[in-house]
């Protein structure tokens, strides 16, 4: 049987290029382990970042839901208020209103309109504009103004709505109809003016005290007390102008007045600034100044009446002439006849 052919042997490469490098198993294993470790770190980092992203997304969704619910809650509250509410942006465009604001002009859609055009039929911002002041200052602003389009007085409170950086992005205006209040205030002013005129021109003394100091006295009182101006009397203890014989009684009356109990009409003597007495008749009643109870007293000068009463009393206590000496028979014709 013939022998197998011999495999031709390659000639050695003098440069050594055909040499097969000898592998080092330990080095290879080390390199593989290092690479695996690097990959594991990368995987762990990716997992951690992915978890952070998942948590951030969950938080964002939760915050968005909470914000939505809060907006719905605030919107429901604002819509239920009996005051008008409108939200305007920097160019005075209305972006939201509650139902109360819509009811002002129900035939028109307010959202998207300029506030000054919708509420006041103007072609440019109002001269007195709370929203513009808030955009300029960032501070809450309150104004009272008459809305000519409705012929009503409004109390407007404008509040800034700011972003995270503190920039005012919108203004929330709350407006309440105060027409009846304004009318009541005007009626009160007129009533006070009429009352003051009556008091200032009254012929009786009108005096107000707080059970200690005199707080007001009208011109008649100033004159009767012999003062040249109210300043000479105001601030004095009210008992200083009362004759000592009547002070206890007047102090009791004042205590009753301050408790809201009716005190009796009293005759007493007052003292002028020079110390001379004169008779008055008066009565006090409780009233209020700035919420504090005080006593208003009205007193009439009865000096003339007292003088007449004294004169009449002296006449009654004097000697009465005899009937014979003062008898004057009169005839039916109206002429006196001589005594027989």
Please specify the SSE layout and strand pairing.
Blueprint: H1 25-80, E1 84-88, E2 94-97, H2 99-102, H3 115-120, H4 130-137, E3 141-147, E4 152-162, E5 168-177, H5 179-201, E6 205-209, E7 214-217, H6 219-224, H7 247-258, E8 266-271, E9 277-289, E10 292-301, H8 303-317, H9 323-326
Antiparallel strand pairs: 1-2, 1-5, 3-4, 4-5, 6-7, 6-10, 8-9, 9-10
Give a structural overview.
The chain is an alpha+beta fold. Among the domains are: 81-182, Beta-Lactamase; 202-309, Beta-Lactamase, CATH 3.30.450.20. The protein contains 9 helices and 10 strands.
The helix/strand class is alpha+beta
User: What is the CATH C level class of the domain at 202-309, in words?
Assistant: Alpha Beta
Which oligomerization state do the chains in this entry correspond to? Answer: single chain
**What is the CATH architecture term of the domain at 202-309?**
2-Layer Sandwich
Give the strand line-up of the largest sheet: 2-1-5-4-3
Poorly predicted runs: 319-340
Number of separate helices = 9
Per the principal axes of the C-alpha atoms, what is the gross shape?
Answer: elongated
Q: Portion of residues in helices? A: 25-40%
Strand content: 15-25%
Number of strands: 10
Q: How far apart, in Å, are the first and last alpha carbons? A: 220 Å
What integer value in Å does the Rg equal? 51 Å
Q: What's the CATH H-level homologous superfamily of the domain at 202-309?
A: PAS domain
CATH topology of the domain at 202-309: Beta-Lactamase
Average of the residue pLDDT scores: 83
Largest sheet: 5 strands, antiparallel
Give me the strand/helix succession.
HEEHHHEEEHEEHHEEEHH
